[in-house]
């Protein structure tokens, strides 16, 4: 904690759960380390988004003791890590576009529904974090195609974003979204 700026130390100290304090503190140490390796600084920008000095961008995600931090030297970047969970149909309907819901309902032998949901959701959240909008946007208005090996953004600006998605351990899903040349 002592390596973090006072504002971050105060924010972290104010978090209710110790697990959240730990995840956020480690996450920000990782962000500072990634920035330090590139001779730039990291700070909290608009809408709570971590940011760095151009052209470097950074992103952070943490859930349930899983902490993921990334840096890019080529464009905006977002990351999301989630542990798999059963998702009620009503929640899926609030989070996913019609095309995503159809993919989720479709038959995929051997791939549990919770994993399919997490693949879509982490990719979508990584994109929303890369843009800095977060969940201020309606997530149903963003559509991710996951019929190929990697997620793909559908619609306007789709060619400007590249995704990578993987499971670092059973029950955990990670997605990264990075801005690229169209
Ligand atoms: C950014 C946001 C998307 C957070 O997502 P999350 O899944 O709760 O949390 P994550 O661990 O993935 O990300 C948290 C980190 O994102 C970063 N972050 C915060 N605001 C951000 C923004 N606008 N853009 C990009 N990154 C942001 C922060 O570094 C934060 O960690 P910190 O608080 O320790 O600094 C936020 O906008 C939000 O509203 N989350 C609500 C989650 C939700 O409602 N999920 C419903 C599932 S259907």
Characterise this structure.
The N and C termini lie far apart (40 Å). Helix 1 (6-13) runs antiparallel to helix 2. The protein folds into two domains: 6-52, no CATH class; 79-179, 4'-phosphopantetheinyl transferase domain (Ribosomal Protein L22, Chain A), CATH 3.90.470.20. The protein has five helices and nine strands. The strands form four sheets. The chain has a three-stranded antiparallel β-sheet. The chain is an alpha+beta fold. The protein has helices spanning 6-13, 18-37, 89-95, 98-105, 113-131; strands spanning 42-44, 50-52, 57-63, 66-72, 77-83, 143-145, 152-154, 161-169, 172-179. The protein binds coenzyme A (COA). The site of coenzyme A has 20 residues, from helix 2, strand 3, helix 3 and helix 5. Residues 24, 27, 47-50, 59-63, 80, 91, 95, 125, 128-129, 132, 134-135 line the site of coenzyme A.
């Amino acid at each position: 904690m002592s390596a973090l700026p006072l504002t971050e130390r105060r924010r972290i100290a104010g978090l209710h759960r110790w697990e959240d304090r730990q995840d956020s503190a480690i996450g920000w140490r990782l962000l500072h380390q990634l920035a330090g390796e590139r001779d730039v600084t990291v700070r909290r920008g608009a809408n709570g988004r971590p940011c760095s000095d151009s052209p470097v961008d950074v992103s952070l995600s943490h859930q349930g003791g899983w902490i993921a931090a990334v840096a890019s030297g080529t464009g905006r970047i977002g990351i999301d890590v989630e542990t798999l969970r059963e998702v009620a149909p009503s929640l899926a309907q609030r989070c996913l576009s019609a095309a995503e819901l159809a993919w989720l309902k479709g038959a995929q032998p051997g791939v549990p529904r919770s994993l399919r949901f997490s693949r879509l959701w982490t990719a979508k959240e990584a994109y929303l974090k890369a843009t800095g909008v977060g969940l201020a946007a309606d997530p149903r208005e963003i559509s991710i195609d996951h019929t190929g090996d990697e997620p793909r953004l559908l619609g306007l600006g789709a060619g400007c974003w590249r995704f990578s998605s993987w499971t670092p351990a059973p029950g955990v899903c990670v997605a990264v979204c990075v801005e690229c040349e169209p």
